[in-house]
Design brief:
The protein is built from six helices and ten strands. The chain is an alpha/beta fold. Strands 5-9-8-6-10 form a five-stranded mixed barrel, surrounded by four helices. Strand 8, helix 4 and strand 9 form a beta-alpha-beta unit. The longest helix is centred in the C-terminal third of the chain and has 28 residues. It is globular, with a radius of gyration of 16 Å. The structure holds adenine.
Amino acid sequence: MKIAIMGAMPEEVAPILKKLGSYKTTKYADNEYYEATYKGVEVVVAYSKIGKVFSTLTASTMIQHFKCDRLLFSGVAGGINPNLKIGDLIVASKLAQHDLDITAFGHPLGFVPGGSVFVQADRELIELSKEVALELGTTVQEGIIATGDQFVHDARVKENIVKHFNADALEMEGASVGVICDALGIAFFILRAISDTADTDASFSFDEFMESSAIISAEFIMKMVDKIVD
Ligand code: ADE
């Protein structure tokens, strides 16, 4: 077993690296990858940089170059579902690319021929997250995550994403990572803690809560890893 643990920003993986203690840093494809043995299991940690292209490259590298056989993503998201408050955890059941748009040719938003609107996350890992939450006395909400190369800070954009995807949260990497894992036959799990609600004040909320929410998500991910390696 070799587990990939990724985030998009340094703040999203820093709490994970702290937990690992020592690790080996390898430069590959213009990024850094941190390899360690955690409780007897090999892990590779990286932050991809923000967005679908960088996250695709990092997920693909972790699987194809570093030979990881499952992938856990930890980070922050903008909340759409009003039940999701700052710091709450959402685990993706399925994800879509909200900015993949060839609707001009009659296709649904998020769809291109040969693909599908949604990519499904691994059911076993989702169930495992619920067990972990129960043990910790906390909650994770399962829901739909919409991904796009856009920091959403506009209620109308948010409404449009709800209309097309019935999404509960949005971010900038989950679906691209999911598509890669799905294509390569690797089980994946996307966890996000809410940093803002994607409204006009989203950038202020993000600046205020990104780090604390990133820690909430990272700490939960490491509890998942504990359970997986157990
Ligand atoms: N990640 C966290 N908040 C976000 C937002 N409002 N839009 C896109 N990605 C995000």
